[in-house]
Amino acid sequence: MIVKQHLIFILYSLCAHVFKVAGTKSKAKGSQGQFPITQNVTVVEGATANMTCRVDYNDNTSLQWSNPAQQTLFFGDKKALRDHRIELVRASWQELTIRISDVSLSDEGQYTCSLFTMPVKTTKAFLTVLGVPGRPEITGFTKPAMEGDVITLTCTTSGSKPAANIRWFRNDKEVQGSTKVNATGKSFTVRSSLQFQVDRQDDGVAYTCSVEHVSLTNPYMTTEVLEVHYAPHLEITHSLIIPQEGQYLKLECVSIGNPIPEPVLWSKDGGELPDIERMIVEGRELTITTLNKTDNGTYRCEASNHLGTSSAEYILFVYAKDFPGPTTDPNALGQHGPDHALIGGVVAVVVFITLCLIIVLGRYLARHKGTYLTHEAKGAEDAPDADTAIINAEGNHVHAEEKKEYFI
Questions:
Q1: Contact 407, 369 (CB under 8 A)
Q2: Pairing of the two strands 95-100 and 49-54
Q3: What phi, psi does 172 have (nearest 5°)?
Q4: Which residues contact 127 (CB under 8 A, 6 or more apart)?
Q5: pLDDT above 50 (res 12)
Q6: Helical H runs in 172-322?
């Protein structure tokens, strides 16, 4: 019995030893067959990049990180490259993580994690560095621009990677520009130009250059406001549609121009204002108090700037106080009273046509009556002598009595 128990113990110990050896060989085989696990990393220039290398299990085999130039950065927890920006984050048999601070475009490239088994197993991880574009600048503005000038606005941004995208806006509406991209080392310089002819509608318009990039949360923008100088244009507005005696009338000279055209000069019928006591000028306004018939005439305002001179006119006709007046403004284009000349012309044409009809009808009746009498005397013209012609005519006259007709 004791011998039997001893044999069972020996068999148990032998089996345990066999399983332990098999487990050790299997673990060693798995460690030798696996590859390190890494991930690609993307960061913005100036930020911090963490590079991590892992293995699922390890039998005391070291991990190593190398840069794109194949320089060893860390071997396990031992730092190999003297770069104050590179630090150790975590080092164990299953993981090696390092940190690269203040990343620059030159740090971009393919990094290698190595597992020192036999043979050495390696895995690549690509570090992508985004170049942040510089703040845009707009050049080409002429202050002030003159109406009719052709100007070219250029927006420039540099240092972007990949190349930034530039968009133009005229106030809130997008307009298309022409873009050029130039490589400067590992980064790009982008220029976009906008060319147009200036008119007065561009005065005060804001032109905005917007730079968009994957590294930016919000676009970079810069804005310039265009100032345009142009010649003046004047119009006269009036307070009364139908001026009547005794009323007061206010005329305003409305001017459009840049610079503002001034001073405003008022005149009447090509001369000075005749009654300065009743005709009061205040800036751009002319007020005529107590209107009367002597105020009738053409009033003119004139103003200028360094680009030109403009004027406008208003024709004043003062109606009687109790006169209802026309229903429309006499100064309105295309509006006027009845055309008496036209009415007289129409009446003359009608009278002329009537007279022509009467004359034609009278001539027609007279012609037909003459023809009838000539037929009554037919035969007289064939007589050989005067006596015979008389006899023939009298004979025909007898017969004509039977043919006589009466016209009523």
A1: yes
A2: antiparallel
A3: -105, 0
A4: 40, 41, 42, 43, 49, 51, 100, 103, 107, 108, 109, 110, 111
A5: no
A6: none
For the chain, how big is the Rg over CA atoms in Å? 56
Which pLDDT score is estimated for 357? 86
Report how far residue 78's alpha carbon sits from residue 98's, in angstroms, rounded to the nearest whole number: 11
Identify the CA nearest to 240 among candidates 292, 313, 316. Answer: 316
Question: What per-residue confidence (pLDDT) applies to 124?
Answer: 96
Average pLDDT score over residue span 12-39: 53
């390890």: which residue's tokens? 58
CA distance 354 to 359: 9
Cα–Cα distance between 293 and 297 in angstroms, integer?
9
- Rounded to whole angstroms, the Cα distance separating 80 from 64 reads 10
Q: Over 80: is that where the pLDDT of 245 sits?
A: yes
Alpha-carbon span 185 to 160, nearest angstrom: 11
Start-to-end Cα distance in the chain: 180
* pLDDT (tens digit per residue) in 358-382: 888 877 777 765 544 444 444 545 5
Is residue 19's pLDDT more than 50? no
Q: What pLDDT, in 10s, does the model give residues 166-187?
A: 999 999 999 999 999 999 889 9
The pLDDT value given to residue 399: 45
Give the C-alpha separation, 317 to 300, whole Å.
14
Q: Identity (one letter) of the amino acid at 229?
A: H
By three-state DSSP, how is residue 134 classified? coil
What distance in Å separates the CA atoms of residue 133 and residue 192, rounded to the nearest whole number? 14
Cβ contacts of 57 within 8 Å, gap of 6 or more: 27, 30, 31, 34, 94
CA–CA gap between residue 86 and residue 30 (Å, rounded) = 32
Tell me which of 14-23, 24-33, 254-263, 353-362 is least confident. 14-23
> Tokens at residue 146, please?
């003159």
- Distances, alpha carbon 165 to alpha carbons 155, 159, 175, 179, 309, in Å: 11, 12, 14, 9, 46
Q: Is the pLDDT of residue 8 over 50?
A: no
240, HSE (Cβ side, Cα atoms, 13 Å) = 21
Dihedral, CA of residue 85, residue 91, residue 97 and residue 98, to nearest 10: 10
